[in-house]
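Re-running Siroheme synthase to confirm reproducibility after the cluster update. Everything else is unchanged from the original entry.
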Amino acid sequence: MKLYPLFADLSGRPALVVGGGAVGERKAAALLEAGARVTVGAPRLSPGLQAWVDQGRIEWRAGSFEEAWLDDAWLVIAATDDPALHTRIAALAEARRLLVNVVDDAALSSFHVPAVIDRAPVTIAISSGGHAPMLARLLRERLEVLIDPVIGPLASLLAAMRSRIRARLPDLAARRRFYDQLFSSPVPGLLRRQQPALAETAVKRLLDATSASPAGSVVLLGAGTGDPGLLTLRGLRALNEADVILHDRLVSAEVLALARRDAERIEVAKQAGNHHTTQAQIHALMLEHARAGRRVVRLKGGDPFVFGRGGEELEFLQGHGIAYEVVPGITAALACAAYAGIPLTHRDHAQSVRLVTAHCQGSIDTLDWQALAQERQTLAVYMGTSELPGLQQRLIAHGRAGTTPFAIIENGSRPEQRVITGTLSTLVERATGYDVRSPALLIIGEVAALAPTLAWFGRPPLGAALPVSSPEPEALTA
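Result of re-run:
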């Protein structure tokens, strides 16, 4: 179950807590903090709840639960020690379409109370869906030390100046650049020193200095092979600064999820036999958005400079006077081999690596097959799944032994990764038998024989079994 994150405005709205013990007191306190009109229903109250009743802060409905208690409530929290009563309250709330939280029972709850980091007016909420509340609390404790307390006063200052900022910078891209500059300006430091008047003056100066017509730019960013943990820190920063993201089909959803939520995402799919966006159209999109003052991220699978037409795109940008930068990504040969447990070089097996692409008949005929067929080297073949028969025939014809090991890594570094192993003479047979699909990387060379014994990620390679005595997880990371 995936929850929909929601921040509710309960100010002045009635909320019901059923249960008058310590847990009910904690729940009532949080609701009071949010400005709700709190009613607690219970035969008896804790001292704290009783004090709030005496002070007129909450209302008390004494006695056992009655359905009529739900009549005016916007949401309900069940915090008793009676499971049967919790089940009844949850059913009645569901029938009335009321949000209900049943303490320590995720299955009966239609909303969950998160662990909260309070930097009012900024609130950071962490939820495990009710399944691991201690984990949520642990994450909150760790994040508490990372979230500067000045975030709250800064948010309040920006809220007070919001109208002025929007009037001065009506363009969204210009406002984003202003906020990016603000966070690294002296303003946060002035607020830490309890100098709000000086901080406001500094915001006004920065606002006056920010151009309403920003210059656009393009970041050529390598997304890697799919595992979002392989994205570089600079790459993550670029995704969170982007106004527009032009992404390839093979960029994983997990990597795209790291980008800013309001960035415009445009898929520029280029798939074998189905280029519905041409390279010229990609160039035109980069130019259009950059000239409109937007920060464009051209997000490419793997590394943009390894069979990715990155050079062509930079030449185009340079020719049109568009500012650009390049953020490298982990190319498929490195990531796929590593996740398959295959060292690309090994002093006993291979002293060199060749990166080759063979995605069409025209390119396969231009390769130096005599050099590629030499022993004691590793071939990493990109986009070669449609040309496996030609690869196999040419390598064997130029002297590469049919017993040379190979490994095909399909969806390398992703949860659905598959590794198919065999020898060069059985390459086509195994790829066909296992219905290999793109994206897949082919590794040919003696090092590929190490995949069955050094595998550590995902399922064991197909075509060979792991050894009987697999190393313990600790040994794999030692």
